[in-house]
Amino acid sequence: MKSIPAPKRPAAWEERLASPLFHTFSPAMPRRQQPAPPSQLLPAEEVVIPRHAGPGSLTASWHPVSGPARGAVLLLHPWVPWGKSYFYRGGRLEALRAAGYGALALDLPGFGGSGELAGLLDHDVAAGLDFLASLSGGLPLHVWGVSSGGFWAHQVLSRRDGVAGAMFEDVSPHLLEWGWRMAPGKRPGYLLVRGLFPRFYRYLDLRRHAPALRTAAAAYVSGSEDLGVRPADTRELARLAGARCLIVPGARHLGAIKVAQAEVVELALATFRAAEEAR
Question: For the sheet containing 244-248, what is the strand order?
Answer without folding.
Answer: 45-50, 57-63, 101-106, 71-76, 141-146, 165-169, 217-223, 244-248
